[in-house]
Amino acid sequence: MITARLNKLTTAKNKQEREELKDELNELIFHLYSRYKASQQKIDEMRSIINN
Model confidence over 17-43: pLDDT tens digits? Predict the structure, then answer.
């Protein structure tokens, strides 16, 4: 999804289209980062359980 939006960004015809794509990218990247952080917390919890 992110790659597709980046590819579209390079062929956007006007500033409005670029702004819309930028907003979509921002949402997708924020979601990806949030999921990464949540996964890391779960992994850390599992490691602490295993190591104790």
Answer: 999 999 999 999 999 999 999 999 999
Kindly report the CA angle at 32 between 30 and 43, in degrees rounded to 5?
125
Residue 52: is its pLDDT beyond 90?
no
DSSP code, position 1: -
User: Where do the H-state alpha helices sit in 1-52?
Assistant: 2-10, 15-51
pTM of the shown model: 0.77
- C-alpha distance from residue 42 to each of 4, 9, 36 (Å): 30, 34, 10
Structure tokens at 27: 């949402």
